[in-house]
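Run log, item B.
One chain of 307 residues. Sequence copied directly from the ordering sheet:
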Amino acid sequence: MVVRKAVIPAAGLGTRFLPITKAMPKEMLPIIDRPVIQYVVEEAIASGIDDLIIITGRNKRAIEDYFDDSPELEMHLRGKNNDKMLKVVQDVSSLIDIHYIRQKEPRGLGDAILKAEKHIGNEPFAVLLGDDIIVDTVPCTGQLIDVFNRTNGSVIAVNEVPPENVSSYGIIQSHVINPSLHQVEDIVEKPRIEEAPSLLGAMGRYVLTSGIFECLEEVPPGVGGEVQLTDAIKSLCKREPVYAFHFNGRRYDTGDRFGYVQAIIDFALSNEEIGEKMRGHLLRAINEKSLNWPSVQGALRCTSNFE
């Protein structure tokens, strides 16, 4: 079957970015002039997805507003003859038709995906985490769809993670088919390093068969008292083949503060308008070895009060 539907879970509370996420969804944090979730949506579109479901939660209305039409803004830009910016605004609202489903309580990634069951039906579908950006000439989700078409089995995007970071990922145990493709035998959510079956971690992109829904309905709450997608995949492995694929591309975990700053710097360096200025700024900052500007030091002191 053709993979044409995708789910983007975006209902998390964003506690790692408090206090800003009291008022702004973490998926709407900007990378220069676009929110994180736009890059995720564009990856889905570039992978051939034409039916997109975003799972939202309380205080996530900004996501819906962003991808909606904005008549007042468009009228203002048209009146100012700002055709360039008018096109940018209109392009965002015409990217793809998006359906929104609300997760009323933060019960975990697995529960969020289960909310899409009625819309997905019996079709295979992609899952793209709303705070992960993956950059490559061939979109990561498209790579997974190619693997799914060859294997007819669910596929998880994986990469090797540093030992000190395994407790932040779903870690797989697998049988190697070739250097890029494994068959998954087990997956463990956020294990301690001494309990990890490998260093291969799930990286926020999946193509799943509809069989995952039955597994999600049956699995009890796991780590953190939440319904974990990894626990459902563990169950799915016992019923049908599940594969892990070493994808090509650079991943940014923008749900992590360091990963978010990395993304901003890298995207700024690649930006035609500000890339050279950014490169010069970074070189000056490195040469100075430390930032001595009073305004920066003051901001850092203020920030430390929230740590």
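Observations after the first pass:
- The chain has a mean pLDDT of 89.
- The first helix runs from residue 36 to 46.
Flagged for discussion on Thursday.
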